[in-house]
């Protein structure tokens, strides 16, 4: 039993680091090292490939590359820390390099600065609320970080809050606010009455929030409804009747594992009834 | 009789004291390390990676405020300008122009002196329209 394990370990350790460009869209495992485009020439098979002469004067200056979730910097290379598919996005304008990240799936949320999440107020203590966001600690939310905050205008224990993280790292308790940097609410704050809150995986949230998501477009045609997506895997839905709300919740939970044909069948059945 | 030390000896003593103090300071006996400029920036947020839409959505008029927000936030995100301006005017442009015309007269009358009141005649409708021609100094022609 020990032999195949040791052989596998050797092969992993012995294999050279692959170029990130060649691995785009493929599954990568934690522990793999990836080379960035500028380093490929140097690491190529000795002598066989001629290095292209670049007449570019600024050939030595490298482009800044951003390594996103699932990747870490390891010297000059990228080290994979989560298993999933490697993705890349070209830079939109100016500063070059683009973004590399690993498209992985998980249920447990880790607070990240700038993320919009749905939280549940669990306690009041001193000047702050304790809000449960699904992470390892409850986040703190100050009384004053709402638009038009007054003594009367405050959330109660048990309310749902849509806010964003201002501080979120592994060393400190996460802090969230319900206003943006200009002091406006922009849709954040207490989420209204009724409705249903349920939990899904983080990957599904990102899939539903993609700009060209068909699921959301089809759902929007069914009946009047309101949805709030939190990046911590929580979705809040509300429709006119309880039955419609429940149907919506079931669709969103199930659509992760359905093919597009099955989904279209279900939507056509719903549209008929 | 001189008490105390000379200024020279004082200076010397001070310098010696300073030397002793600075020698006692600790320092790292390492060769100069050049800081390597790192070209890789680590970010843990998905916002940079994928263009995600705004998290609050409303369909078929369930929550009009959220629908307005959706347009705002998603438009900002895509940096597209809204071509059709659907700003509903409470008062039409023509009516505005008419009001302004009479408004100028009313306000002007407030600041006019008694003699100038004759300039402001009242219309049939009761609107005050100022007579444009004011009495100015006419230079005599030779």
Give your account of this protein's structure:
Chain B: This is M-phase phosphoprotein 6. Chain B: It comes from Homo sapiens (Human). The complex is a heterodimer of chains A (273) and B (142). Chain A is an alpha+beta fold and 273 residues long. In chain A, 21% of the residues lie in helices and 28% in strands. Chain A contains 6 helices and 17 strands. In chain A, the strands form 4 sheets. A 5-stranded mixed β-barrel of chain A has the order 9-10-11-13-12. Chain A has a 4-stranded mixed sheet with strand order 1-3-6-5, with no helix packed on it. Chain A has a 4-stranded mixed sheet with strand order 2-7-8-4, with no helix packed on it. The longest helix of chain A has 13 residues, at 2-14. Chain A is globular, with a radius of gyration of 24 Å. Chain A starts with a helix and ends with a helix. Chain B has a domain at 49-84. Chain B has helices at 7-24, 64-78, 93-111; strands at 40-42, 56-59, 120-122, 128-130. The termini of chain B are far apart. Chain B is α+β, with helices and mostly antiparallel strands. Chains A and B meet through strand 4, strand 5, helix 4 and strand 16 of A and strand 1, strand 2 and helix 2 of B.
What fraction strand of chain A? 25-35%
Strand order of the largest sheet of chain B: 3-4
Q: Termini of chain B, distance in Å?
A: 105 Å
Task: Summarize model confidence as the mean pLDDT of chain B.
Answer: 78
Shape of chain B: flat
Q: Greatest chain-chain interface? A: A-B, 48 and 30 residues
Low-confidence stretches of chain B: 80-85
Helix content of chain A: 10-25%
Compute the gyration radius of chain A: what is it?
Answer: 24 Å
**Unreliable stretches covering 5 or more consecutive residues of chain A:** 7-11, 41-51, 56-60
How many DSSP-defined strands of chain A? 17
Mean pLDDT over all positions of chain A: 83
Beta-strand level of the residues of chain B, as a percent range?
5-15%
Spatial strand sequence of the major β-sheet of chain A? 9-10-11-13-12
Oligomer: heterodimer
